[in-house]
Design goal:
Blueprint: E1 5-14, E2 17-27, E3 32-36, H1 43-51, E4 58-63, H2 69-75, E5 79-82, H3 94-104, H4 111-119, H5 135-147, E6 153-157, H6 165-182, E7 185-189, H7 193-199, E8 202-207, E9 210-216, H8 217-224, E10 227-232, H9 235-246, E11 251-253, E12 258-261, H10 268-277, E13 282-288, H11 292-302
Parallel strand pairs: 3-7, 3-8, 5-6, 6-7
Antiparallel strand pairs: 1-2, 1-4, 8-9, 10-12, 10-13, 11-12
Helix pairs in contact: 3-4
The structure holds adenosine-5'-triphosphate.
Protein name: ABC transporter, ATP-binding protein
Domain ABC transporter: 5-233
GO molecular function: ATP binding; ATP hydrolysis activity
């Protein structure tokens, strides 16, 4: 399978500091990947490497199944990006900004300028200079700018940063439509986790330059659904005890000696007592699940590495 982006053991150093440490990720086409990490985790660094704005110290990177400097240069024409700040020229209108970008990219089709302005909801800004735009308008112009070459892969670093709630909703709608209607794969970083949760189909959690976890929305929902997590080697016996002792079938046996029980959340004492009574050697018993935010904190707090 050709991935839109595939990295293997990608590392990047700044002086003696390792900002990215052996990062291996695979991005499939048509998905929206939420890149989550604290300040300084390495999100922008990873995006800059993917976009060709900086070069790795070690490791490999391929785009659309191609690697090698010459090939990557060609494949990067299929990428649009807005990394750090939207690259906007303040003294120009939205359309003039897009014209500059279009010409720089060597794209002859002038109609794309109006099409992109329409797409991001800026077609009525006329001669207004970009420096007088609101932050939300600037962000949308930045996205239009990234979209001008009809990219198949969009890299957006903090596109909703500083936006008011309505602006956030607008960007969310735009990105969801771009993925659904134009089948654009999106890699997006954001500190706004509740918002990201509404956009992303998949998540990549990065911490201190390392990828701690990649998971799909379904896997996240599974992890976030409130449950009693019971760790026990004898999962078959445990399941039988839950069914017979508690009369429940609302549980799931996980592959790693964990059973998730989705009911009896308010009767943990009763559950524990029944497990004990049946002689089960329980090595972990906790109430888990919740928001993306809490999940993220539990992953980086636990320092998991799978
Ligand atoms: N040009 C640079 N020179 C030196 N250090 C750098 C440079 N760029 C990034 N770093 C360092 O690399 C680490 C990762 O930075 P990066 O910008 O990728 O983090 P981030 O996850 O995008 O953070 P934020 O959420 O704050 O944008 C940080 O410690 C940062 O200080």
């Amino acid at each position: 399978m050709d991935y839109v982006l595939e990295t293997e053991n990608l590392s990047k150093d700044f002086g003696g500091f390792r900002a990215l440490d052996q990062v291996s990720v695979k991005l499939e086409a048509g998905k929206i990947y939420g890149l989550i990490g604290q300040n300084g985790a390495g999100k922008t660094t990873l995006m800059r490497l993917a976009a060709g704005l900086s070069f790795p110290a070690q490791g490999s990177l391929s785009l659309f199944g191609h690697q090698g400097e010459k090939e990557l240069k060609e494949e990067r024409k299929r990428i649009g990006c807005m990394i750090e700040y939207p690259g906007i020229i303040g003294n120009m209108s939205a359309k003039e900004n897009l014209r500059v970008r279009r010409v720089l990219k060597g794209i002859p089709n002038k109609e794309l300028e109006d099409e992109m302005l329409e797409l991001v909801g800026l077609s009525n800004t006329g001669k207004k200079k970009a420096k007088n735009f609101s932050l939300g308008m600037k962000q949308r112009l930045g996205i239009a700018d990234a979209l001008i070459g009809n990219p198949e892969f969009l890299i957006l670093d903090e596109p909703v940063n500083g936006l008011d709630p309505l602006g956030v909703v607008e960007i969310r709608r735009l990105l969801t439509e771009l993925c659904r209607d134009r089948h654009i794969t999106i890699l997006i970083s954001s500190h706004n986790l509740p918002e990201l949760y509404q956009i992303a189909t998949d998540y990549i959690i990065i911490h201190k330059g390392k990828i701690l976890k990649t998971l799909s929305q379904e896997q996240l929902d599974e992890n976030c659904k409130r449950h009693i997590r019971i760790q026990c080697q004898e999962t078959a016996k445990l399941a039988a005890v839950l069914e017979e002792g508690l009369g429940t079938t609302d549980y799931k046996v996980m592959p790693d000696g964990v059973v998730k029980l989705y009911d009896h959340l308010d009767q943990q004492d009763q559950v524990a007592a029944i497990l004990y009574k049946n002689g089960l050697a329980v090595t972990g018993f906790s109430l888990e699940g919740d928001s993306l935010e809490n999940y993220f904190i539990s992953v980086i707090g636990g320092g998991q590495n799978d």
